[in-house]
Amino acid sequence: MFSRVAAPALTEAQLFAALHPQLAAWFRRRFTHFSSAQRHAVPEILAGNSLLLTSPTGSGKTLAAFLSVFDHLARSHDAGQLPDGIVAVYVSPLRALAYDIQKNLRQPLDELGWPWLRVAARTGDTTPAQRAQQRRTPPHILVTTPESLTLLLSQPAWIPALRSARFLLVDELHALAENKRGSLLMVAAERLEEIVSAPPSATADRPSPISAPPAHLVRIGLSATVAPLDTVAEFLVGPHRPCGIAEITQSRPARIEVFSPLRAQAYPPAGYTATRVLKELGALLLKKETTLIFTNTRSGAETIGLRLKQLLPEFSDLIEVHHASLDRAVRLEVEDRLKRGELRAVVCSTSLEMGIDIGSIDLVVMVSAPKGVSRALQRIGRSGHSMGRTSHGILVASNINDLAECAVTARMMERHELEPVKIHDDPLDVLAQTLVGLAVFESVTPDEAFALVRRSYPFRALPRPEFDRVVRYLEGGGASLERNYRDVFGKIRVDASGVLAPAHRHTARDFYQNIGTIVSEQMVQVQLGRRTLGSVEESFMKGLRPGDVFVLNGRTIRLVEMRLLTAKVAAADSALPTVPRWYANKMPLASGLAAEVTRLRTEVARRLASPVPDAAAAWLQSEYHLSTANAAALLAHFSLQADISVIPTADLFLVEVYRDRGLLHYFFHSLIGRSANDALSRIVAQRVQETRGGNALVTIDDYGFLLSLQAFQRFADACELRQLFRRDGAEDALRSALGQANLVKWQFRGAAQTGLMVPRRVRGAERGRRALQWSSEIIFDVLRRHEPDHPLLREAYAEATLRFLDLPRALAFLDHLASLPWDLRELDRVSPFSFGIYVSKIKETMTLEDPETTIERLYHEMYGQPPGRPPVATAAEKNQPPPNFLRPPLPAV
User: Fold this and answer.
1) Coil, helix or strand for 517?
2) Which is higher by pLDDT, 545 or 619?
3) 3-state secondary structure at position 415
4) What pLDDT sits at residue 867?
């Protein structure tokens, strides 16, 4: 079903000839030649074939998709057959990206001189007047989001305009494939397919459901970084439909470099080394026109942004911070200044990873490894964001473990080894929302609705009993609620003719007001005077008292008072801040990266034991292109680990025990990433509680987890510990552990909102966040006691275990662990490989300025002077501007 576009179907001259003459003439004037992405994609789309196009940022893939759309529209216009409705639907995951594309489309259309071609954006920000105008005069190209498209498909007034659609363009497909917005979009695509293929005899407002609609809709998926391609192509078009795949990996050169702030001696593997890179970052800013600095946390962005302003006071007004917790007006102001070239640097977390136009970026700096190859490639693509320019990215290692990650990431970027996308299968809350939409608008039977959703990839294997349980929930709330609360929770019914219909007059209104999968968060707005700076989680604000100081938007501010969900603050420029640590900021290590780090550890351990001198150093330098100094730093760290304990490898499971202040600290070296370690540690902690009693304190990271026990909970040997890691009954242990935690309850709030059990909006007004929380918790407690298999409760558990905790990866590790030898060691100090996890346990009590000096002191007290320390930098090296330890430039990525 999926065919690789191995070579361009047309030569350059043939492709120019294939396009509409006016379009070809304009393109020749503007660009002179086609990019590789365009030469591969345009002939396929012109031929009416669906296509997945994956190509680096700045390779012209968006224009490749729109060239075919423009060609179709121009030929229809010349033939007098241009429809009054929508011809192409462009879907973006971001409102900002949707507006960006709409704006960028106007320039070529103005240059082409085609005033007859209409383009409009429809998102949540579109005003009522604009919506009314769009209904009266539909655009030929509609730029929208998954939520707005779903809304339009459920409004009879829009169906005539949508019936003329021939193209569905999905941009940044990787950002949609891994979340429920993508599931919502793919079901919406099937509904659009059905509308497009409806016979002319169908009524104007209600198309007849067709069991197998012809593939009249050309679907085009665009992504810079996504894998595996066959799976993503099937996600785009649905099972059993053909789709071409064009993969462009060599479109433009890229420089990927690894830098560390290493100087005279190794530094702790626990982080908090920001001050060591500040001077280097400052030097980079002075050498470049515009630098984009990515961090892995919003708090990290705030910290580095603030310190750079303090380090370079003459440029403080030209350095800004950008992340999702800042107010939209603040973010738009930063983006506009960036586009106009007015800023020397912007420090952000993930908010600028998407392909919105941010102007000319000379350099992308990533402080700490970004935990995924796809994310790293996406970030580096923000520099040199135009055809013919070179992307330049620097991975800055903040500690010794991070140096290994950065080296591995750069190597995998060079080889374009992407981690596989994780698509949500059978999200039952999205199914519930879809069924309500079908009941509101289309005359479909349950059988027809089941066939429709099964044509989409996320629901391709949906069991009929699961579908029927969701229908029952929508009819009255479910088995535990329908007897007494059918009128409250009932949303649909099967009428006398056997089709789905709204249960109440207000069902349609409630559905229109609550479309989408984006869950309301518990956020507190932070206001400085009359200006809203941004927002932080309520749980963070509850821990502050009036007079406490923290950082937001790169500014040091003092809390004055807090009223409900608004915090009043005042400027505190000279005060010592405490940076907020947001819950959503910890990104887990991707599975591919974890496996490669394990390989690095295993190979270094083997070569350190080799009789060949410097075998390990030579291998690191040749395999990962590390400098002499960086290779020496890693080897010093590994050698110290080997002296104190043993190096954990792919062939050995290491468990270390350290006594401290009456507690026994068990360090389990399971290099499977934070999410999987979170699941694994909960299973182990639950079994400790069941076998030993008492609570088990757990600290997790990407490299393993720490279990802190009291003396009476001690495990005598490895045989006893093995029982904690048995595969049999692991799912039951996790379910028991989650029954005592808030994670499933927290996930249920989202499922209840998406599944329309707890609506976000009632009668056009937003419900208070406390009201949403209270309602969902009451329902959760009832269902947990009386209907544990309720569809929304099952979805909450799936969300918690499959997408938040990564239970499958943890279970796979348990299966593998059954055949591995164990090495249990009791140590008189924390080993270097465990030091990072140990510090994670204690650093939450430290202030912003204390951790660096405290952790440095603790590290050297524990290990003394590490053996095999790297060579001292010369005076010339110390004065050399960064990056001082680099990989050679790669030919292209």
Assistant:
1) coil
2) 619
3) helix
4) 36
